[in-house]
Design a protein that fits this description.
- Keywords: Isomerase, Rotamase.
- The protein has 22 helices and 16 strands.
- The N terminus is likely disordered.
């Protein structure tokens, strides 16, 4: 299979800059003054439609420019087409100017750009090869979607689920269980009288769920132990259970919200159905093609791949055959870009490294067969690479223009720096020691001991290790983000600690853990001079649209844009030019692979 792709390859290559480009693109080339029609009597070359300084624009060039953008900028019904065309003409002229500035600055001659272009060429060639083979796939009709839905009805039935809260008191003997039951009876009465379950769970529960206000999350029937499951799925919404006594303690449960079981409608299922059918059709086309290339590229198995990724050797090769090589460093960069792309698209499941590596090998196989059998028309790849290069240079120069606009007003930057000190200070860091104890049959008793120790100012991870076993390790300084990567609740547990204190314990899939704060590194604000580049970056990110409009206004005030009114009227009367395959369609094909 091929690696998932976004609608435009440039978004993938630029990673986080793609969203930034879209922000400024939303206001691109919308000068408040608009284009000035040239006075009557002006001589126009055949096909010419607009002038901007030394730049000239003809109808054919404008058509090509619009075709490249129709998937993202198609005018909605009712749009004033004359205004829409004026904006596209302005946009073209600005991009031509930005491209000229980028080339004059030597951006296309930098080693980084040359390396990116070589990588992009291979990926663009793969896209063109894919388009060659799949552009004639039959469209997915309503009947196809309905038939697929009927074949998979069982997959579209959503069972009932319940958002469940839990309050637990640990108790190891009959007397302790009786005491805990009486306590939970009193807490239940308070909840029935209007007290908040989450607040009581945070104050009284021995379960880790207390850090989330007692929330266990959305549960389906059968996920909990049988005794607790029966109670949860027998409760009315908002009514706490009677205390439930188990071998290790007493539980109080409440269902906050119930989502009834239901069947997903055909309309709701359409995106999934469409993707499934498209994937099947694309696989039917691509599978026999890649089988014609017998190279295995020395691909490691899953265990070897994970070992290579952990090794830290960025130059270790993962795929190699002839001129094609993929090393660990490049693969990590691709994984990072893919992860960022998936996060912006709200993908629930990140791609597994093994699947991505298989996809990259499949893409290269497809490209090789395509090259060997000469599928592509002469010049098609060169034209596509030139288009990519133009987009990258324009995007880079646009970013530079925004930085220049921001840097020109130092007083505004200094004000921004003074108003946002947290952005330009070193983050809080915690120096921690951690005790990890493997889960075993005594885990409940061990957790009780850790809970008690977390309230004892004299306890330490060393004394706990001597009493309970496990391993103690010193962690490198941890920021909030790094704590959250360990456990989502950990920042809230560590933040209030004083040096020497222990956190509340945590249970993971394999261990019980408790942390001791050694020291806390407070934020250190950076001076404006030291943080100037970051100030500009953050200011541009926040004010990109206004800065770009400022640039446009200045540009068109310095040099008038002239448009042939007669040629523009002809454009408005004609239909919009159409691409042979839409960017959206190509994106769907790439997603399916």
């Amino acid at each position: 299979m091929l690696a998932p792709r976004s609608a435009r390859f440039s978004n993938v290559l630029c990673g986080g800059l793609a969203l930034f480009s879209l922000i400024v693109f939303a206001t691109a080339c919308s000068p408040r003054s608009g284009g000035d029609d040239t006075p009557s009597g002006t001589e126009w070359a055949p096909g010419e439609i607009a002038r901007f300084g030394d730049f000239r624009l003809d109808r054919e060039t404008l058509d090509r420019f619009i075709v490249e953008r129709l998937a993202e900028e198609r005018p909605v019904p009712g749009t004033d087409l004359e205004t829409w065309y004026r904006e596209r003409i302005s946009e073209y002229m600005i991009e031509v100017q930005l491209l000229q500035q980028a080339r004059e600055a030597g951006r296309d001659r930098s080693p980084e750009f040359i390396a990116s272009r070589a990588s992009a060429r291979s990926q663009i060639e793969t896209e063109l090869c894919l388009r060659h083979q799949t552009s004639q796939l039959p469209p997915i009709e309503r009947a196809d979607l309905e038939a697929e839905y009927e074949r998979n009805l069982d997959l579209f039935n959503k069972p009932e689920r319940r958002l469940t809260l839990h309050l637990y008191r640990r108790a190891g003997d009959e007397e302790a269980r009786a005491t805990a039951r009486a306590e939970l009876d009193r807490l239940r009465d308070r909840i029935l009288q209007g007290d908040d379950f989450g607040r009581l769970a945070r104050a009284h529960s021995d379960s880790e769920s207390r850090h989330r206000g007692g929330e266990l999350g959305w549960l389906f029937q059968g996920e909990l132990p049988d005794a607790i499951d029966r109670v949860v799925f027998g409760l009315e919404e908002g009514v706490p259970s009677r205390p439930l006594v188990t071998e290790d303690g007493v539980h109080l449960l409440m269902v906050q919200t119930i989502t009834p079981a239901r069947a997903v409608s055909l309309i709701e299922a359409l995106p999934i159905l469409h993707e499934q059918i498209l994937q099947e059709r694309v696989e039917e086309v691509i599978r026999p093609i890649v089988e014609r290339d017998s190279s295995d590229f020395g691909m490691p198995d899953q265990a070897e791949l994970l070992a290579l990724l952990r090794s830290g050797d960025a130059e270790a090769l993962l795929l190699q055959d002839g001129d094609y090589q993929l090393d660990v460093g490049d693969f990590r960069r691709r994984l990072a870009l893919l992860s960022e792309q998936q996060s912006t698209e709200a993908r629930a499941q990140p791609a597994h490294p093994w699947s991505v590596l298989q996809a990259l090998r499949t893409r290269e196989k497809l490209r090789r067969v395509c090259e060997q059998e000469a599928w592509l028309a002469e010049g098609a790849l060169a034209a596509a690479v030139e288009r990519w290069e133009r987009e990258q240079l324009v995007s880079a120069q646009r970013r530079q223009v925004l930085r220049d606009q921001a840097a020109a007003d130092e007083a505004r930057l200094r004000l921004y720096h003074s108003q946002n000190p947290d952005q330009f200070s070193t983050p809080v860091r915690w120096n921690l020691r951690r005790l990890r104890i493997a889960l075993d049959a005594e885990a409940s008793a061990t957790m009780a001991a850790l809970e008690a120790a977390s309230q004892d100012d004299q306890a330490s991870v060393d004394s706990l290790q001597m009493a309970l076993g496990g391993q103690v390790e010193s962690l490198p300084p941890q920021r909030v983000l790094e704590l959250r990567q360990i456990a989502s609740v950990l920042p809230a547990l560590i933040a209030p600690l004083e040096p020497g204190q222990l956190s509340a314990p945590l249970r993971t899939l394999e261990h019980l853990e408790i942390y001791q704060l050694v020291s806390r590194e407070e934020p250190v604000p950076a001076s404006f001079e030291a943080a100037r580049e970051r100030v500009i970056t953050n200011f541009v990110r926040q004010h990109a649209a206004a800065l770009y409009q400022q640039y446009l206004d200045q540009t068109f005030a310095e040099q008038a844009l002239r448009i042939d009114a007669e040629a523009l009227a002809q454009l408005v009367e004609a239909e919009l030019p159409q691409p042979d395959i839409s960017a959206e369609r190509l994106s769907q094909l790439l997603e399916a692979l």
